[in-house]
Amino acid sequence: MSLPPLPDSAVVLSTEAADWRAAVRTAGRALVRAGAALPEYADRMIQVVDEYGAYIVIAPGLALAHARPGPDVTATGMSVVTLATPVAFGHPHNDPVRVVIGLAVTNAEDHIAGIASLANAFNDADLVDRLAAAATATEVRDLLGVTGGRAPTGADGAGR
After folding, report:
1. pTM of the full predicted structure?
2. Which of 66, 91, 93, 111 is the catalytic position?
3. What pLDDT tens digit does each residue of the chain (160 aa) get?
4. Annotated catalytic, 66?
5. Could you give the C-alpha distances from 70 to 108, 120, 156, in angstroms and in order?
């Protein structure tokens, strides 16, 4: 699996989050706007961290918010959230987080492949810094090497 398309509605740049839960909820709302998930998916992403800890903070400054496939995932999709003020997730080495990638997948194979594809993209040590500094959704897509895609008809196209 290559990375899924990233519509403008799934990109939130330089936003504030009070804590890691708010940052994950922002990524979840962006997945909803992109047509990839229902609002309940953000709760499941938070539950993963509550249950297993901050393992989703996969590199310095980078969190990969996700949960297993479920009925609240409507399509494979991705969101990108950059934080104006980094937040701690509780990871001993990779906090604070400046970039949150949300990932929603419809089956277990795509779950594993999506995480692997994102890990490959972040082999570039400077990518988190460049994403955190991105000013437009187009710049984010270019950095990740993904297409724009389109949000479903009726989806809120707001970037925040």
Report:
1. 0.89
2. 66
3. 578 889 999 999 999 999 999 999 999 999 999 999 999 999 999 999 999 999 999 999 999 999 999 999 999 999 999 999 999 999 999 999 999 999 999 987 766 776 777 777 777 779 999 999 999 999 999 999 888 875 543 343 333 3
4. yes
5. 10, 25, 23
